[in-house]
Every structure is written in structure tokens, then in C-alpha cells.
Write the C-alpha cells for this entry.
Amino acid sequence: MKNMYTNTSSCVNVNNVLTDWFLTENGCRQGDVTSPTAFSLIINDLLKELNSSNIGVKIDANLIVSVLAFADDIVLLAENAEDLQKLITLVNRWSFKWRFIINPEKSQVVHYRNAPKARTKFEFKLQENGPSLTVVDSYKYLGVYLDEYLTFSKTSEVLSTAGGRALGSMINKFRTLSDMGHSTYSKLYESLVTPIIDYGSAIWGYKSYNNLDRVQNRATRYFTGVHKFAPMLGHVGDMGWVGNRNRWKINILRLWNRLTMLDNSRLTKKIFKWDMLEHHLSNKTNFCAQAKQVFCELGKKDIYQKIDPIDLNWVKQKTLNVEETQWANDVKKYSKLDLLAEIKPEFGTENYLKVDMDRYDKSLLSQYRYGILPLEIETGRYKGIDREHRVCTLCDNEVVEDQVHFAFHCSAYNHLRVTFNDTCNNRIEGWNNMPDIDKIASLFENQSRLFGKFIKKCFLHRKSLLFK
Ligand SMILES: [Zn+2]
């Protein structure tokens, strides 16, 4: 080691031209396997000194955390500005002694506090007469942005941008493969997009974040082939994917399990217990508060109180059941989804999405299901016409042009309906005596390709009649 660091010099390679050699008097060799050890040896004294300062966040009678060190990154923690300045001075003196130079431009301060409280006016300095360190609104630690109020809105912004980009490239690459099935698409989404939008969710995942939900909605919209304003409950329910928040809740409990099983001597475990006590004593909205909420929602508050681990498979099943019940209740409240509520009793992947089908046909079927196919029943809504007056203009029946009328009764499509009916009669038992709603359900279940083609023919014919 001594030889390696005696009389070392370096030069820089710029476009294959080497600069003059210069002596390197401090620092570790980049990329060398011994460098982390060498760095640990030198930094260890500083950490010891910081820890013995008795300044920092008081965890319990015997433990004060004043510094987090990860690779060459050092985070100083204090409960007030004066204490933090003392730690900064200590670090600066140490660096002076060992001939390190701390870059004041790369050193910043974040004042963590509750929302209405004003940011500190304290001027933090490495040394007297030196420049003040900038007080910023967030700090990125291990990829998660910890903003000054701990809202995690910046984290969600950054993750939704990255997740959106990942989804975009996934869609672009596979746009050409029109026969990509539901399971392939789901698998790709799970491996390319969810790891990004779920990053760190064990820490921030209890709240809901619109920007992250938009990423998943875009993914389900793309596959079902519907536009931005399509009712979410429709494509979400038909895809049958677990919602963001439910995945995040599971991640919270996964971290909970790891923490509860850690040995009591571990620093992380001590901080976990302190976090729990802080919530208990002053009702802080910290990690344990989130975990407790999730346990309460699952009806398992006792496990929280006993600080036990929980069976994650049970949690997955339970959250899915809750999601299914919630979906079934919500879908009934939304008038556009009248038809869907009748033909789809349960949340879950629909057969018509598993079938290899023309994208346009699939898109029309989705629009038909979600009440957004531009029939009078839908377009009349934009024109402010009452529901009962959104009458079909293509036949003389004087009835509302809804999905049932369009597919089974409107005389404008009688010529197209003859062969369609014959095929259905051959393929579906009891077809002729079936109520219309059952016919639609049965077509989606087993004859979606046939139905898709029929809807397309009718829809194109409708267009040609209207624009004639
Ligand atoms: Zn009609």
C-alpha cells in the first residue's frame, strides 16, 4: 500500500492526447480495489470524532446519530442550526489537518421541518470569513429525494418522468409486434416500468401520487386502445393489474418485515424502534405511522402492536380482494359504465384482451364497453342533451342510440346483422332467446374477434351514412 501511494503521478487522456504528468499527493486511485478500504481507513477517524461530539439526533439514552456515511458522501445530522454548524466546523478542521479540501459549492444544507414553519436564516459556514453554504429544498439520498417537508413530491416527479420514459420505449419497441399478448405486455411492464415507479416506495408509498398513477394508466390505456378521457375504471378493471398504491403498501410491509427481523444490536433496528416510539408519543407521520395505517386497513393492528412480521402472500391476496370490492362498488356509480357494470361482475383480466386481435377492432370493443364509442349516447353528453333525448338518427325507432340499440336493434345495420346472427347462432348455445346483455357478455367472453369485426363494420357503415 505504501509503495502504491508513494510518488504517484497522473495525467489525463483527452482525445488520445496525454497531458503533462502531475504529482497526486492525496486521494485514492480511481477504480482500484483497495481504494474503498483506504478511504475507510482515513475517514474512520472523522466518523469517530463526530460520533463522540454528542451532537446529532438523539435516538435513545445511549445513541446519538450525527453522521451517515456512504462511499464518499457524508451527511451530518443535527437537531438545530447551531449544532449543525458545530459539526460542520469539526469536519472542516479535520479536513484542514489532513489536507483535504471540502468544496463549499458541493456542500449544502436542508432544513427539515413541518410545512408552515419558515426556513432557517442561519448562515452555515465551513470556516469563518468563508462563503455561506446554500440552504436547498431537498437532498437526494440513495436515489430518493428527501424534500424539506418530506412530502416526496419531487421523488414522485422524478420517478414518473423516468417511468414514463421507460414505458414510452417499451411501447415504441413493441408497437410493431401487433400480436403481443396480454401476458407478455404485463410481464414487460412489471420488469421495465414498475421497478422504476416503485423505487423507494417502502418509504414514501402510503400517499397517492397522480403523476405516478398517470404512468400506469397510460400503460393500460395503450393496451386497451382507448383515449385519455376514457373512464379509468374501465381499462384498469379489464387489465386486472394491481394498482400502484396496493403494490406500495406491500412494499411498506416488506420493509416492516425486514426491520422487525433485524437483530436488536443493529443501528437500523434501533432507529426503527425510535421511529415507532416517536409516532406513539407525538403522533408523528413517519414510517411507522404509515405501516400502522396499512395494518389497520388490513384489520391486523395486533401485529403492529406486537412488532411481528406479517405473511406477505396473505397481504397480497387481501389487498387484491379489497381492490376488487372497491372496483365493483365504484363501477356502479359511473353512468358511462352502465353497460360494463352489467356485463362484468368482477375486476380481472378480460378474455377479449387475451385474444390475438386487430388493434383497431380491440380499440372499438374497449370503447364500446366503456361507453365512449361515439354513438349518440356519448356524443349527446358533450352537446348537453338529456340522456333520454340522445335519440338514434339512423332509424325511425325514436329510441336512444346506446350500445345495445347499435349492435342488436338499429335497422340501419340489418344487412350486416344477418350473417353475424347466423354465425352467433351456430357458435353460441341458446343465442336466439338470450337477453341482449347476456349476448354482449357472451360475445366478449368467447367470440370477441367475431364481435370486434361486426362492431367495426357497423361503425364504419354508421360513419358513411352520417357523412354522406
Ligand atoms: Zn337506430
